[in-house]
Amino acid sequence: MGSTDSKLNFRKAVIQLTTKTQPVEATDDAFWDQFWADTATSVQDVFALVPAAEIRAVREESPSNLATLCYKAVEKLVQGAESGCHSEKEKQIVLNCSRLLTRVLPYIFEDPDWRGFFWSTVPGAGRGGQGEDDDENARPLAESLLLAIADLLFCPDFTVQSHRRSTVDSAEDVHSLDSCEYIWEAGVGFAHSPQPNYIHDMNRMELLKLLLTCFSEAMYLPPAPESGSTNPWVQFFCSTENRHALPLFTSLLNTVCAYDPVGYGIPYNHLLFSDYREPLVEEAAQVLIVTLDHDSASSASPTVDGTTTGTAMDDADPPGPENLFVNYLSRIHREEDFQFILKGIARLLSNPLLQTYLPNSTKKIQFHQELLVLFWKLCDFNKKFLFFVLKSSDVLDILVPILFFLNDARADQSRVGLMHIGVFILLLLSGERNFGVRLNKPYSVRVPMDIPVFTGTHADLLIVVFHKIITSGHQRLQPLFDCLLTIVVNVSPYLKSLSMVTANKLLHLLEAFSTTWFLFSAAQNHHLVFFLLEVFNNIIQYQFDGNANLVYAIIRKRSVFHQLANLPTDPPAIHKALQRRRRTPEPLSRTGSQEGTSMEGSRPAAPAEPGTLKTSLVATPGIDKLTEKSQVSEDGTLRSLEPEPQQSSEDGSPAKGEPSQAWREQRRPSSSSASGQWSPTPEWVLSWKSKLPLQTIMRLLQVLVPQVEKICIDKGLTDESEILRFLQHGTLVGLLPVPHPILIRKYQANSGTAMWFRTYMWGVIYLRNVDPPVWYDTDVKLFEIQRV
């Protein structure tokens, strides 16, 4: 891109800046213009020619020069926004300043002494436009920069198509321009799809990269437990001060959701045409999720009742959050807009799956983690969208890719974050009855996945993948076991018929979780048995008719239930169980689970490549903090069951106040009694053993086992099909205990998950921006960068 000459001139200017010990006057244009006026340097050039060590040196040794450089670069962007960037030279200056600021900003953020610099006012930069020198009215540099970026993102002939026929005297149109007419892509609230323009896309991308860099100050603050810390850059940019907030939000959302990497439906098309849209779409997705980083637990997110038609945004609402992007997102309400968003996200999430059965037919996109965060935000902030997603089987177009990612990433410790967000989304969906109902749709898509072959429904797919994660996932996934089983509990009352493969998997989990050494080796492990028993009870009481496979599996494995009922509680037995555990290091054996062959064309889930970079994550809250119990009434409505204040969990510690860190420690496979933390006592075992919900299953076994044994003896049978036929036509009406009310554990927003999302999202953005490496090797505080 840049010629050798301009690179040399630029490098010369950088060297002068780093070697000058005297402050250079802001009025010395001959000096400052070298950085942007005569050069044409790509962003990669700027990163190569401005080394980190030199930026830090200027910051330490001649701070006033660094301050002036930033101030002058912002001033040039403001001038470009004011003039409308008509000449090529002006456009070049804006791009150069934008690249330079992208390079320098992270080094300003990493130094606490500099953090306030952009929020200080610059003399003469009045809020009321040029020439007003009253300092009360001066804008902080950050505000001037953000407003200039916003203006430049809707600059005719630079970032959007000009609507004017003649170029004569069009300077005034920058101020009168209605940017809502210049939205970048058709979709929500905008019907016109502008001609694709490579240059405009590149310019937008450069400005969005700078915007994301402005927002990235959040990376340089350690994770705060009270996540009320709003990002001042995001807060200002998404406020009413930004007159382009609505068209920009719409442009970003539509650009992401309208993107089709397949190349307009023609397979292998991307091999012929380079796709310059993808980098813009990635940047748009990243900016969008950062602007939506808003703790919904601490603010009333508007719940929507009345629908108004006519506008894309629902005006019938309370004003909602200050952050306009969150506000607009929560007020989208038209069916066709929901359809556009859902179809777009599902198409992009399914893209890596297409790759597996038509290799190279489409361009493989890499930003599925950003899409999952965006989908989460949509469901969390816009309940109407959530209900729309669950209204039809379209939700399965989101479910299948998520299960694919979960299964594919299960052995890779660098993708633990991806595992968490996938599970969080499924937990959120599973709180709604419709999700369980949708899972009954037969699963016929044959995406090659490293799981046993089965014939069945989407519910079978979900349980088989969860079993695979639990039995052969990375050990750092143990904290997710509660979540995975909670999802299965939530959907279980609606599952009409599980396949034999799935039934065996569920019983294998019960077998593994109910061994004495597992139950006695950590304070929380017995919860997993409670979840599984709840699944069996829900299916027996509410879906007995179609579930002969599960009933048969329970009968075959009846010894497991008898062992649980007769669990030993005396000290010698507890001691013996823990001795046995030291000899059995493997937390869950794969034996006893008939694995069967994996699907054709699938590859085993691979661990992380050595040397892979990953970012650390904060601990997630325990399941009792993540969810709130609700009871399903006769008419299908949910009634919240607020825990009684004096209630304590099975192990005698207060249920609500259980800190997630302690919870993680207790889950560690190492025997905690050795380190003196916790050891099981007979009283403790009895306290929860007495609560095991075994009555329904014991009654079922009492009634059916003699009948099944009689068939076998009478007919000399070893044939399953005859027994299954008997179970299919059998009934337990009037023989089982009165059905228990259905309990659903619904996800509830809390500051712990808000903080988790923030660290996860910025970690993804940090790792994905490698060309240029915007934040690499700077002193980030929000997470640690680790090598596998």
UniProtKB/TrEMBL annotation:
<dbReference type="GO" id="GO:0005797">
    <property type="term" value="C:Golgi medial cisterna"/>
</dbReference>
<protein>
    <submittedName>
        <fullName>HID1 domain containing</fullName>
    </submittedName>
</protein>
<dbReference type="InterPro" id="IPR026705">
    <property type="entry name" value="Hid-1/Ecm30"/>
</dbReference>
<dbReference type="GO" id="GO:0016020">
    <property type="term" value="C:membrane"/>
</dbReference>
<feature type="compositionally biased region" description="Polar residues">
    <location>
        <begin position="590"/>
        <end position="600"/>
    </location>
</feature>
<dbReference type="Pfam" id="PF12722">
    <property type="entry name" value="Hid1"/>
</dbReference>
<dbReference type="GO" id="GO:0000138">
    <property type="term" value="C:Golgi trans cisterna"/>
</dbReference>
<feature type="region of interest" description="Disordered">
    <location>
        <begin position="297"/>
        <end position="316"/>
    </location>
</feature>
<feature type="region of interest" description="Disordered">
    <location>
        <begin position="572"/>
        <end position="681"/>
    </location>
</feature>
